[in-house]
Amino acid sequence: MWTLVALLVLVAPREALVSVVIVVGLLLGGGLFFLILMVFDREALETEPGDASAFKH
What we know:
Blueprint: H1 2-11, H2 17-40, H3 42-46
Protein backbone atom coordinates (compact mmCIF):
# COMPACT_ATOMS: atom_id res chain seq x y z
CA MET A 1 0.00 0.00 0.00
CA TRP A 2 2.81 2.39 0.87
CA THR A 3 4.43 1.80 -2.53
CA LEU A 4 1.20 2.69 -4.33
CA VAL A 5 0.85 5.91 -2.35
CA ALA A 6 4.47 6.85 -3.02
CA LEU A 7 4.07 6.20 -6.75
CA LEU A 8 0.87 8.22 -6.83
CA VAL A 9 2.58 11.18 -5.18
CA LEU A 10 5.56 10.98 -7.52
CA VAL A 11 3.59 10.52 -10.74
CA ALA A 12 0.51 12.70 -10.25
CA PRO A 13 1.01 16.36 -11.16
CA ARG A 14 -0.33 19.05 -8.83
CA GLU A 15 -2.84 20.13 -11.50
CA ALA A 16 -4.48 16.69 -11.36
CA LEU A 17 -5.38 16.86 -7.67
CA VAL A 18 -9.13 16.63 -8.26
CA SER A 19 -8.86 13.53 -10.43
CA VAL A 20 -6.48 11.90 -7.95
CA VAL A 21 -8.92 12.55 -5.11
CA ILE A 22 -11.75 11.05 -7.17
CA VAL A 23 -9.75 7.91 -7.98
CA VAL A 24 -8.63 7.46 -4.37
CA GLY A 25 -12.22 7.94 -3.19
CA LEU A 26 -13.48 5.33 -5.65
CA LEU A 27 -10.80 2.87 -4.59
CA LEU A 28 -11.60 3.39 -0.91
CA GLY A 29 -15.33 3.06 -1.58
CA GLY A 30 -14.80 -0.17 -3.54
CA GLY A 31 -12.55 -1.57 -0.84
CA LEU A 32 -15.11 -0.70 1.84
CA PHE A 33 -17.88 -2.36 -0.19
CA PHE A 34 -15.74 -5.49 -0.59
CA LEU A 35 -15.01 -5.63 3.15
CA ILE A 36 -18.71 -5.23 3.98
CA LEU A 37 -19.55 -8.11 1.63
CA MET A 38 -16.85 -10.26 3.21
CA VAL A 39 -18.23 -9.67 6.70
CA PHE A 40 -22.00 -9.63 6.15
CA ASP A 41 -22.69 -11.50 2.89
CA ARG A 42 -19.84 -13.90 2.20
CA GLU A 43 -22.07 -16.05 -0.03
CA ALA A 44 -22.36 -13.22 -2.55
CA LEU A 45 -18.61 -13.44 -3.15
CA GLU A 46 -18.57 -17.22 -3.49
CA THR A 47 -21.34 -17.62 -6.06
CA GLU A 48 -22.09 -16.19 -9.49
CA PRO A 49 -25.35 -14.36 -10.10
CA GLY A 50 -27.94 -15.78 -12.45
CA ASP A 51 -29.09 -19.20 -13.49
CA ALA A 52 -26.23 -21.60 -14.25
CA SER A 53 -28.39 -23.61 -16.65
CA ALA A 54 -28.70 -20.55 -18.95
CA PHE A 55 -25.23 -21.31 -20.30
CA LYS A 56 -25.89 -24.95 -21.18
CA HIS A 57 -26.66 -25.76 -24.81
